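Please describe our next protein:
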Amino acid sequence: MIAAVLSRERESKLRIRKLTPKECMRLMGFTDEDYEAMRDCEMSDSQIYHCAGDSIVVSVLMSLFGELLGVEDYESRVRDYTESIKEQKR
């Protein structure tokens, strides 16, 4: 992934830079702890970029399902249902 950043000195010119693996993971909804766990497993930057590229943002997916199924606040309903299942297993 790359990002175009306006240079403050020359607003007419764009400076292009590559997003870091951590920035890519954050954009895809992962936490910094998830990123650090990948680093702890000695994953390379290329592997982390690949994981970020193969992922989907969960909140976007939940919104899509909610719209497709015509259910308001689908994400919180799924979360509540999941919690009730966890409590039943205890």
Observations:
- Residues 21-55 form one domain.
- The helical segments are 21-27, 32-40, 45-54, 58-69, 74-89.
